[in-house]
Amino acid sequence: MGKNEGMPQLRIALAQVNTTVGDLSGNSDLVVEWTRRAASDGAHVVLFPEMALPGYPVEDLALRGAFTEASRAAVTELATAIADAGHGDVCVVVGYLDADDVGPRNALAALYRGEVVATQYKYHLPNYGVFDERRYFEPGTTLTVLRTHGVDLGLAICEDLWQEGGPVAALGAFGVDLVLALNASPYERAKSDVRVPLVTRRAAEVKAPVAYANLVGGQDDLVFDGGSFVVDADGVLLARAPQFAEHLLVVDLDLPERRGTGDRSRGEARVEGLAVRRRVLSDVPLDPYPVTYRPELAEPLSDEAEIWSALVMALQDYVRKNNFRSVLLGFSGGIDSAVVAALAADALGSDAVYGVSMPSKYSSAHSRSDAAELARRLGCHFRVEPVENIVAAYVDQLQLEGVAEENIQARVRGMMLMALSNMEGHLVLATGNKTELAVGYSTIYGDAVGGFAPIKDVFKTQVWELARWRNAEAEKRGETPPIPPNSITKPPSAELRPGQLDTDSLPDYALLDELLENYVGGDRGFADLLAAGFDAETVDRVVRMVDRAEYKRRQYPPGPKITFKAFGRDRRLPLTNAWHEVH
Q1: Residues lower than pLDDT 70 in the chain
Q2: pTM over 0.85
Q3: Dihedral sign for Cα atoms in the order 337, 340, 346, 347
Q4: What does the angle CA 514 – CA 519 – CA 525 come to, to the nearest 5 degrees?
Q5: Is residue 158 annotated as part of the catalytic site, yes or no?
Q6: CA nearest 506: which of 554, 435, 446?
Q7: Looking at residue 3, what is its pLDDT?
Q8: Is 50 one of the catalytic residues?
Q9: How far apart are CA 427 and CA 450, in angstroms?
Q10: Could you say which of 50, 406, 436, 495 is catalytic?
Q11: Integer Cα distance of 483 and 471 in angstroms
């Protein structure tokens, strides 16, 4: 915002950082380093994401007394470390894990001149989708308004901003000049289209600008996209950070005269059922200074670019944070393995990707050549390990036939990948997509082996879309498209028997994905599916397939959530389940 004579000024920095769950020391160092960067840019306040110090989500670590005590100690030590580094005059607001006689707390701390000058506990504890915060935390009942350089800063932790009432209503009634919101908001498709309008409404309710700092990075099956931003009291987007990258968003604010009804002189009050207290760090406004930071508005990514970036970051962080250096996967010549391999090359570099072609007697010539072509295009490691003789030993000894003979091929390949992983230390990647997982079109202990499944939440039709998009992006940059065109255009097949095609066992993928989006993603029942125009026989068949495959999904490797309802945390059904809604 441009400088306006007589308006209080403040330079804030939103530190969009990638933390690691449990790494209190490493995360503390990260906070000190990004505070240094903010201080060098002249920031007066720097805001870090929710639970930045212990990482997010901590899950059952919150129930371990030793960990909560270590987090409490770390935040005190962090205040000292920031001051010792020469940045004590910067007000740092950071999320951490606290605990008291009531229980664990999702908390924030304000650090200033070597001290923890204020703390606040999260009030709204989400208990839906991927969130289990009522299992872990007790809600807070007190809010702190920080006055620094004559500016009153209200504080909110993630869900406290997302829900009506509670902290936002209390801050609006009490009266603040700016709201600082710490967030660990997981990515899902088009999530930014929801966040900005939501925060715009909250800014109007509290009658003050809102700074929204979001976590970035992968954590198991969650990925956080960043995209931190600032809106003014009228809901105008002032600044936005890029997605899927660590970033320091620095914003100069000219804060207009407060529009709220709060009394600036009162030190505490009870508002909307919450105790609100003011902590004064500095009552004296800053001397007018020239605005040097122009508003930064990162452009939103396209749908395909957003999904690809999410998958790349999730894979990169899972490998890095779990101390692997390379990945291994089967190169079948099909679209799924090709997309996973391209994701791995983008995430880790081609030299960290090891592909294995494992042809059987049913493998076509094009599947072998497409696998080799994929390796050539990526420039990754590649080897051929035929499985025909190993499969024959099982088939001959056990007299296998039919599905048992088909599945033993997949299981031999799975054993081969795991053996190479044991020998060479690679992380095995499972290449199954969401459509296959939904209907059970995978072989447990076969193609389902591995430590991470990058496209677990990507429908088959989306896999093709991503492949075409990635190749087009490469062509725009004058690079070799990573995915062989034949892998995109040929009919998909598991090649476990002569002439086999996926459509022998499944409906057309476009129809199947639309049906699954409604049944799995939308929780629509049989009658609703029929009303939506789906054929009764197809609905009955697909629903039965989905319901029968729950045990397979429970044993599938973790993979990044990119949709509103992913298998795993979002959708939890009993393995033993006699309820089947049929026509």
Answers
A1: 1-6, 257-266, 493-497, 500, 582-583
A2: yes
A3: negative
A4: 130
A5: yes
A6: 435
A7: 43
A8: yes
A9: 7
A10: 50
A11: 7
